[in-house]
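quick q for whoever's on today - can somebody do inverse folding on this one?? i tried earlier but teh output was garbage lol. tokens:
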């Protein structure tokens, strides 16, 4: 498979950007740091608190839900632009600890482990896509963290599935925003309005958007809105984890 010059340059730039931001993870648990002897990414003890998102989930966004309803509160009442979203794990226990370290503790290479699970999920469930992208960070935030963990997830995902030509940084963030995890439901929506634009041609493409955590889906929805307006025929989300619906949180105004 030939890789065009533009894609090769992107992959090289990403690889260069992460060489000094994380320690090797192949033989260390990404939750507690213990030495391990498998490629699962977790030691036996931490694996006990890994919860797969395979219970009852919203038929649209894939978040874990309780009760008789088929859709979570967001998908039932809000304007949704993405077509469907999936999550491999529930955002708790070892997964939560690993993701937080990946994002905030200079452990960008943890994305390599999480991407293996994303790739397995995509193949197992027959996800079809023409392009793989990710929610971008603002220039200011990227300078502070030095890497975008979602970009790393998307890149490793494409590398594992041997489809680097599908990797794209089509989305750009044009507005500085507050961190979503600090905000309530209504604030999350308002925070991201107009934050994303599309910088590459996505007309007629089926786009797969990869991210680390889905909570209310505000980020995925705003990205999907921008992509659909530029002609993407479908936008699906695939996240490492999803935070189970919290009724009190979802009803916050």
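ok took a stab at it. sequence:
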């Amino acid at each position: 498979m030939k890789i065009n010059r533009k894609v090769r340059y992107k992959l090289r730039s990403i690889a260069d950007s992460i060489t000094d931001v994380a320690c090797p993870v192949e033989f260390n648990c990404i939750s507690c740091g213990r030495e391990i002897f498998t490629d699962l990414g977790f030691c036996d003890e931490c694996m006990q608190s890994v919860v797969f998102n395979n219970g009852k989930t919203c038929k649209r966004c894939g978040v874990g839900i309780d009760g008789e309803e088929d859709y979570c509160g967001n998908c039932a009442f809000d304007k949704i632009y993405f077509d469907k979203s999936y999550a491999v794990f529930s955002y708790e226990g070892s997964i939560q600890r690993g993701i937080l370290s990946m994002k905030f503790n200079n452990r960008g290479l943890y994305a390599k482990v999480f991407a293996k699970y994303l790739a397995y999920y995509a193949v197992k469930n027959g996800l079809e896509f023409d392009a793989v992208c990710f929610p971008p960070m603002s220039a200011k935030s990227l300078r502070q963290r030095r890497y975008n963990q979602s970009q790393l997830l998307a890149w490793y995902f494409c590398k594992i599935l041997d489809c680097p030509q599908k990797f794209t940084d089509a989305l750009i963030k044009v507005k500085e925003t507050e961190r979503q995890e600090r905000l309530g439901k209504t604030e999350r929506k308002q925070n991201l309005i107009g934050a994303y634009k599309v910088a590459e041609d996505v007309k007629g493409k089926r786009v797969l958007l990869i991210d680390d955590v889905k909570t209310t889906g505000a980020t995925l929805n705003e990205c999907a809105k921008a992509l659909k307006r530029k002609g993407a025929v479908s936008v699906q989300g695939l996240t490492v984890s999803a935070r189970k619906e919290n009724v009190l949180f979802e009803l916050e105004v």
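fwiw The chain has ten helices and six strands. also Residues 1-25, 247-253 have pLDDT under 50 and may be disordered. so keep that in mind when u check it
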